[in-house]
Amino acid sequence: MADDESDQGAPDVLIEEDADYRDVALSAQEWASRQFVRCDFTDADLRELVTHGCTFDECDFTRADLGESWHTSSALRSCNFDRTVLTDTVWQGCSLLGSTFVDCRMRPTTLRDTDLTLVGLGGAVLLGCEMSGLRMREANLVDADLTGARLRGADLTGARMRGTTLVDTDLRGAQLDADGLRHATLSGARIDLATAIAYAAANGLVVTDEP
User: Fold this and answer.
1) Which pTM was predicted?
2) N or C: which end of the chain has fewer CB within 10 A?
3) Quick one: three-class SS letters along the chain?
């Protein structure tokens, strides 16, 4: 009886696998605790979508419109965003682990307490975006433009940053390894003393307090 009572108290979770949502119009929807696995949202109208506690695994959002959408505590893992509209989106406490973004419209985008580990953002334009404190370990940021972005306290350990533009970014408290400090463009970036020393060492300078 105890098991039956606990089951009755558990919230229902709607799980959809391999569902076809191509070209559907679902703007201004509110989804909570839904699970999508390998679903196809190609060309779907998802503008102003609100999700809370939802999971999307290996879903395809090619050319979908997610503009002005708001996502809280949702996970979009290993998803494909190709030419997806993501303007004015908000990600709060989400995971985008292993997802790939190609030629997406992403400005302005707000990301708070969101996991971007292993995310593919090569060539992405994220000018002035708020990305402080984000986990971006081993992310692909090759040729990405983060001019003026706020990356304070972000974890960029292991991120691929060849050709990454970090001009005028706020990197205070951020974690960058030697590869990123060598290959990214950091002119005008705000950094703390620890990063300044690491930057010097990564670029072959010898830091000394000897006169």
Assistant:
1) 0.84
2) C
3) CHHHHHHHHCCCCEEEECCECCCCECCCCEEECEEEECCECCCCECCCCEEECCEEECCECCCCECCCCEEECCEEECCEEECCECCCEEEECCECCCCEEECCECCCEEEECCECCCCECCCCECCCCECCCCECCCCECCCCECCCCECCCCECCCCECCCCECCCCECCCCECCHHHHHHCECCCCECCHHHHHHHHHHCCCCCCCCC
